[in-house]
Fold this protein.
Amino acid sequence: MKRGSDNSVMLRTIASCEKAGRKNHAAAYERVAELLKRPSRKRPGVNLYKISMHAKDGETVVVPGKVLAVGTLGKKITLASFGTTGAAVGKVAKSGSKLISIQKLVEENPSGKGVKIIV
């Protein structure tokens, strides 16, 4: 029986998070990699209202799962996630926030400073 993900994007994302975590002593990226290694049914799905409750303006937020569209996002943040629903993409854009992939975040901020993980 095969174990683990076949998704090449997922595997590259996990590898880049682990590499940045080891190289830069970035515990946030090590935790993100750990959460992404879970089976897909156990990866978090986070609604926009929860992100809005826990994030502050100008903050960088990582969701190691899928961003769902329930609620609104009233803050301008940088949001990195592995997946996003179509409705959530529209709401994030409407709020003026920036939506990027986790790999892009690791490239832009390899030290992991100022990154908040919301699960």
About this structure: Residues 17 and 73 are 26 Å apart (CA to CA). DSSP finds five helices and five strands in the chain. The mean pLDDT is 94. The two ends are 29 Å apart (CA to CA).
